[in-house]
Amino acid sequence: MAGMQSRSLPRVIEQPETALEPLYRVIIHNDDVTPMDFVVYLLERIFFLPEPDAMAVMLTAHYEGQAYVQTLPKHEAQTRVNRAHFAAGLEGYPLRFSIEPE
Q1: Residue extents of the structural domains in the chain
Q2: What is the pTM of this model?
Q3: Per-residue pLDDT tens for 40-64?
Q4: Read out DSSP for the chain?
Q5: Lowest CB count within 10 Å: 26, 60, 63, 70, which one?
């Protein structure tokens, strides 16, 4: 508009909330009931692992008792673990994940 002076406003750089959250490792625990293909499916769909990585994680958990899945901000790790537990529970499987500080 004519006659108005241009003012520069301070620049605000927003960071997502998760950028400030502590990071947590997601761990999958083996059980003798949950089918391997279902585990791979959940790792692909909930944790967004590519199929070869999901297969490797599942096999590591199967043979070693547990396996590292991925590291995420705490809230995201808890959310994905809850989704996986819910999905497994709907199918009647005792699949278990846990999280631990990075």
Answers
A1: 21-101
A2: 0.80
A3: 999 999 999 999 999 999 999 999 9
A4: -TTPPP-PPPP-----GGGGSPEEEEEEE--SSS-HHHHHHHHHHTS---HHHHHHHHHHHHHHSEEEEEEEEHHHHHHHHHHHHHHHHHTT---EEEEEE-
A5: 63
Residue 61's closest CA among 83, 88, 35, 23?
Answer: 35
Cα distance between residue 67 and residue 40, in whole Å: 13
Domain 21-101 -> CATH class: alpha beta
Beta bridge partners of 70: 26
User: What is the distance between the alpha carbons of residues 73 and 54, in angstroms, rounded to a whole number?
Assistant: 20
Say which amino acid occupies 39: V
Separation of alpha carbons 94 and 85, rounded Å = 8
